[in-house]
Amino acid sequence: MDFKEMKKNCDKILESVDKVFVGEELLLRKLLCAGLSNSHVLFEDNPGLGKTLLTKTFAKSIGCNWGRIQFTPDLLPSDIIGTRVWRHENSAFALEKGPIFTNVLLADEINRSPPKTQSALLEAMEEQQVTIEGATHKLVPPFFVIATQNPIELEGTYPLPEAQIDRFAIKLSTGYVSTIEEECKILKRRIDWKKDDPTDEISPTIDQATFKEMQETCENNVYFDQKIIEYVLKIVRKTREHFQIEIGSSPRGGLSMLKVARAIAASYGRDFVTPDDVKLLAKDVLSHRIILKVEQTLEGVNPRDIIDEIVEGVEVPKDWTRGT
Question: What is the DSSP letter of 204?
Answer without folding.
Answer: P
